[in-house]
Amino acid sequence: MENAHWQLGADGTPRSVRFDDVYFSVEGGLDEARYIFIEQNRLGQRFAQMAENAIFIVAETGFGTGLNFLTTWQYFEKQAPQGARLCFVSTEKYPLSVQDIRQSLACWPQLAEQVEQLLRHYPPAVTGYHCLELSPNVELWLLFGDANDSLSELTGKVDAWFLDGFTPSRNSDMWQPALFTTMQRLSGPGTTVATFTSARTVYDGLTGGGFRVKRIKGFGHKRNMLAAEFIGLEGPPEPGLWPANEWAWPRPTGPKRALVVGAGLAGAHTARELAERGWQVTVFEQQPGLAQGASGNPQGALYARLSHQSSASNRFYQSALMLAQRRLRDLPASLPHQQCGLLQLNQGNKETKRFAGFRSEQPYPAELVEWVDAAKASELAGVPLDSDALYFADGGWISPADLVAERLNHPNIGLLTDHKVTHLAYHQGHWQISYETAGASGTLNTSQVILATAWQLPEITQASHLPVRPIAGQISQIASEGLLAKLKTVICSDRYLVPSHEGKHCLGATFHLNKADAKCQAADDIENFQQLHARLPGIIKADAQAVGSRASTRAASPDYLPMVGPLIEPEAFTRLYGKALQKRLTQRLAPPPWLPNLWINTAHGSKGLCSVPLTAKLLACWINGEPMPLEQSLVNHLNPNRFLIRSLIRAKRSID
Questions:
Q1: How far is it, in rounded angstroms, from Cα 196 to Cα 33?
Q2: How is residue 502 annotated by DSSP?
Q3: Alpha-carbon gap, residue 29 to 219, rounded angstroms
Q4: Which of 118, 271, 587, 643 has the fewest CB atoms found within 10 Å of its own CB?
Q5: Mind listing the pLDDT tens digit for each residue in 290-341?
Q6: Rounded to whole angstroms, how far apart are CA atoms 410 and 277?
């Protein structure tokens, strides 16, 4: 996407070249932000009245320099009670660079600490949703792209609107009727609006969107501005399920208690996200310890296979990768990991088109990923490489098993190992879970259930229709010696190789589709070494000897996207929607037969370190009644029921 073009005026005020307008008032941008957006939305009072673990949602049009957000952040920290959370959602079509923001805000040293924290997490200029976790209680969601497009994909309810951006006469593309329609959908009782402008089109748009609008004294020399409060009927529900229509996604009910089944990457991350939102979470693990499946490998590469094409899969993984890389940067030193960069090698014929697209189109900023020739790739890796590559500067590796333990270390999480779920039944507003332990059995009641059992998910009756594919595989370990010891980056091809940890390198993994029985075999070690030797003949010997091995089973979906979200009752859904789906006549039917408060997070394949942080956050926001940190259209593509729907559209009775 295109960055902003700006310049400093003679008085030091940043000014947009494109719109010939200022980013903030020459009479004092900080005071302007406080008067227009903080005071007129009554944020000081509203922050102070927040309950423990409550969340306040601000949505802004036009992030610009970030001044409004930084001001709000300061007020929130001063006024809000401990445990309350702020989610600030802001759109920006032409983002400023890190250097631009630092320069434009240098005149306010009182913001310096927050500015540096913002810039440390500030994302590259890539269209989409970017979730910046700036403190335990403050998140900034930057929606890069056209405001009307990005806000149309937002879910949840907004507490306060900041209508900023450049003046309507200079930026008419943003101030369209669609903006006010979206505001109506995202607003509810008590939602307020403030904007610097008093333009008639904005006054009429807000009035038509269900807001009571008033003109008040503007800031500085400006005669008027607008403030408003929502008094109308809430807009239609956001589209749900797949394909898009008028169905609404289910709303969770009941107390803030949840059971997460499975203590791997997906289960641990989901439990932690809920716990940080004040939920009491119990985690069941049928094995005697944590991360006994694919999440237990000693080293794992954090990567995504991005493309120059704008597919749903590509858009999801680019968002997931950027969040996971920001998390990688903030991991404690005690957790084994390295943000050492990652190289994806050009594997030849099957990669030719993808690499050609990167070379010719440069679809991403270099700070996210860039094409490098063989010489540059060798320099970055510290070892000789024969092919060009894609370089992810913020890539690296993590110990998945240690990450799982770190995520589960929270006072709101209780872990019970050696607990196998045998039956789920919904009764009088709660789930009753029957389970077995070593030599005993029992039951537990809870409000919400999240299934994160990977390839074993179909063993749960309510999820037995889901086409989860087991993939057995084996990683091998090799001693760090010779040229291999000089390796500085993660290398990915059809195998991955990571820099040494405790004198060993991990490489792998083999891939046995639809095989669940994972056992260490010498043949798999041989295959790992031979395949990697074909890519790195000067580094790995084909007859190298393994100093360690580990076999496990991953889970994948037929389209290799994760399955995340609520479950439906398949037989009832087929009766209600089967013919309607075939005829594309679903708009006026009753809501789908959801299984209340039953959710899944699974099928991450070999990319769990990349995809799980985002899907866990998505699911926790959903369950907690917050806006989702991902475009609604992409949430639809993760819908675990999508395969049943596609099957019904094809007039089939079962899923292949």
A1: 9
A2: T
A3: 10
A4: 587
A5: 888 888 899 999 999 998 888 999 999 999 999 999 999 999 999 999 999 9
A6: 12
DSSP-assigned beta bridge partners for residue 443: 434
Backbone angles phi, psi at 307, to 5 degrees: -130, 165
Sequence length of the chain is: 656
Q: Starting at the edge strand that comes first in sequence, how are the strands of the sheet with 337-338 ordered?
A: 300-302, 396-398, 337-338
Largest CA distance in the chain: 80
How far apart are the C-alpha atoms of 355 and 307, rounded to whole Å?
8
CA distance between the termini of the chain: 39
Pair of tokens at residue 318 = 């680019």
In contact, 364 and 126? CB cutoff 8 Å:
yes
Q: What is the DSSP secondary-structure string of 234-270?
A: --PPPP-SSS-SSPPPP---SSSEEEEE--SHHHHHH
Residue 509 preceded by cis peptide, ω within 30: yes
Supply φ then ψ for residue 388, to 5 degrees: -70, 170
- Cross-strand pairs, 241: none
Question: How many CB atoms within 10 Å of residue 464?
Answer: 11
Measuring CA to CA, which residue among 29, 1, 2 is closest to residue 13? 29
- pLDDT category at 507 given cuts 50, 70, 90 is very high
Q: What is the pTM of this model?
A: 0.93
**Residue 655: what pLDDT?**
42
Residues 6 or more apart from 333 whose CB is under 8 A from it?
Answer: none
The first and second tokens of residue 145, run together, are 């792209």
Q: How confident is the model at residue 254 (pLDDT cuts 50, 70, 90)?
A: confident
Beta strands in 62-171 (DSSP E): 85-92, 128-135, 138-144, 160-163
3-state helix, strand, coil in the chain (%, to 5): 30, 25, 40
Q: Which residue in 302, 262, 393, 305 sits closest to 613, CA to CA?
A: 302
Q: Which of 98, 97, 40 is nearest to 68 (CA)?
A: 40
Cross-strand bridge partners of residue 440 = 437
SS3 646: helix
Burial of 341 (0-12, 13-18, 19+ CB in 10 A): middle
Q: From CA 154, how far away is CA 143, in angstroms rounded?
A: 10
Instruction: Give the contacts of 208 (CB within 8 A, at least 6 positions apart).
Output: 177, 180
Reported as a single tens digit per residue, the pLDDT across 102-157 is 988 888 899 999 999 999 999 999 999 999 999 999 999 999 999 999 999 999 89
Say if residues 495 and 509 touch (Cβ distance below 8 Å): yes
* 257 phi, psi to nearest 5 deg: -130, 135
How much is the pLDDT for 579?
Answer: 80
